[in-house]
UniProtKB/TrEMBL annotation:
Signal peptide: none annotated. InterPro entries: PP2C (IPR015655), PPM-type-like_dom_sf (IPR036457), PPM-type_phosphatase-like_dom (IPR001932). Residues 36-46 have a biased composition (Pro residues). Residues 1-103, 196-216, 437-470 are annotated as: Disordered. One of its GO terms (molecular function) is [pyruvate dehydrogenase (acetyl-transferring)]-phosphatase activity. CDD domains: PP2Cc. The gene is PPM1J. This is Protein phosphatase 1J isoform X2. PROSITE patterns: PPM_2. GO terms for cellular component: mitochondrion. Residues 47-59 have a biased composition (Low complexity). Residues 207-216, 461-470 have a biased composition (Polar residues).
Length: 470
């Protein structure tokens, strides 16, 4: 009975509210320690069987085999069937086996009934060790267990139009981040400012003598300040782009269908980096105060970026759409009249004379959860969607979708935290039915938590649990 009244949001809490200088639990090694000994990996939750009756059609078997849930849930075949049950909508959480996720992370999920056949979302929780690839001097570094970096990684991937993109991102995005950080291991551990250029081998392609460069120097009177923090942000941004490019290359051979919003958290050297590409949300609760760590990217919030792209590259509109926005669809009988509109440069409204091109469907239409790009998709950033087309058309939508996340940084060492401070990550399915304050009030209100502590049971009433299910 206890498990049935647990709130999904209570398990979505990641207790990252204490800096590493405090007492640490065995699953939280120092950031610069040697690679942690990996615990035995739980097998990925097996595909659910077709049932106890006769053999199911091959099509059904293939669909079942492609359905999986995060490894750390350790679901049995029966648990996987319950996770895929649209009627029961059971809340799935990691088993209470004494083996904790890093930083006492909690997690819960429930299928979005009726929206898709299977749960297209995925999640990932990893401790990743980064071995440096080169030294600042340019010479390859000898492999050393004591010179690398360790970062903690959490990711939520909200899939749509298929689960392939979310599945692929959950397995590979943290590896792309690790690859991007390899060149920065020595730089990030050096208190001096990052070097402007990494040296290359003399005579190698790309090397040049700066004395031969001629050009105006007046605008370069001083060098821009680049921080270590911005290097990590750039590494995460590049990793998202490389992940999206890999999906584009492998989308046919590996059946990477659909796309996904991605919300990722990286803890490295005392700082929390929250990267969001999509409409998921992250908040930090510190001493009862709610601190937003992301913002949603939707057709409404990115209207001007979308309109600017449509204005600069009208060929992307295919003669079917207009980059202008009107309060409603323009009617043919209104040709020649003056109607309210706004373009890529405007936040307010003005009047313009309606012309024939204005009868086209608007690039951005609707409002709230019904807002769409090209009348098709309701998010403007994410991974995948390389095969997405306008309904009843061959016009691609991907050029308007950005894979780059917005990265926000929170320095844990600059604030005092208590055991109840938490970082909450959730997809839009949670935030559509509850507010930041409601999520905070439904989470842990007392008891230990964070590194070095064992979180107590976080319970909610059946009414709250039904509300979080939507």
């Amino acid at each position: 009975m206890l498990n049935r009244v647990r709130s999904a949001v209570a398990h979505l809490v990641s207790s990252g509210g204490a800096p590493p200088s405090r007492p640490k639990s065995p699953d939280l090694p120092n950031a610069t320690s040697a690679p942690p000994v990996a615990p035995p990996q739980a097998p990925r939750s097996p595909p659910a069987r077709a049932g106890s009756g006769g053999a199911a059609p091959a099509r059904t078997v293939e669909a079942r085999a492609s359905f999986s849930r995060p490894t750390f849930l350790q679901l049995s075949p029966g648990g996987l069937r319950r996770a895929d049950d649209h009627a029961g909508r059971a809340v799935q959480s990691p088993p209470d086996t004494g083996r904790r996720l890093p930083w006492s992370t909690g997690y819960a999920e429930v299928i979005n009934a009726g929206k898709s056949r299977h749960n297209e979302d995925q999640a990932c929780c990893e401790v990743v060790y980064v071995e440096g690839r080169r030294s600042v001097s340019g010479a390859p570094r000898e492999p050393s267990r004591g010179q690398g970096l360790c970062f903690y990684y959490w990711g939520l991937f909200d899939g749509h139009a298929g689960g392939g993109a979310a599945e692929m991102a959950s397995r590979l995005l943290h590896r792309h981040i690790r690859e991007q950080l390899k060149d920065l291991v020595e730089i990030l551990q050096d208190p001096l400012p990052p070097p402007l250029c990494l040296p290359s081998t003399p005579g190698a392609p790309g090397s040049s003598d700066s004395s031969q460069l001629v050009g105006p120097q007046s605008c370069w009177s001083s060098q821009k300040e680049v921080t270590h923090e911005s290097l990590v942000v750039g590494a995460i941004e590049n990793a998202f782009q490389l992940m999206d490019e890999q999906m584009a290359r492998e989308r046919r051979g590996h059946q990477v269908e659909g796309g996904c919003c991605a919300l990722v958290v990286v803890y490295l050297l005392g700082k929390v980096y929250v990267a969001n590409a999509g409409d998921s949300r992250a908040i930090i609760v510190r001493n009862g105060e709610i601190i937003p760590m992301s913002r949603e990217f939707t057709p409404e919030t990115e209207r001007q970026r979308l309109q600017l792209l449509g204005f600069l590259k009208p060929e992307l509109l295919g003669g079917e759409f207009t980059h202008l926005e009107f309060p409603r669809r323009v009617q043919p009988k209104e040709l020649g009249q003056r109607m309210l509109y706004r373009d890529q440069n405007m936040t307010g409204w003005a009047y313009k004379k309606i012309e024939l091109e204005d009868l086209r469907f608007p690039l951005v239409c609707g409002e709230g959860k019904k807002a769409r790009v090209m009348a098709t998709i309701g998010v403007t950033r994410g991974l995948g969607d390389h095969n997405l087309r306008v309904c009843s058309s061959t016009l691609p939508i991907k050029p308007f979708l950005s894979c780059f996340p917005e990265v926000r940084v929170y320095d844990l060492t600059q604030y005092e935290h208590c055991p109840d401070d938490v970082l909450v990550l959730g997809t839009d399915g949670l935030w559509d039915v509850t507010s930041d304050c409601e999520v905070h009030s439904s989470g842990p209100s007392s008891g230990p938590g964070g590194p070095g502590h064992t979180p107590g049971p976080w319970l909610a009433s059946p009414q709250q649990q039904a509300g979080f299910r939507g």
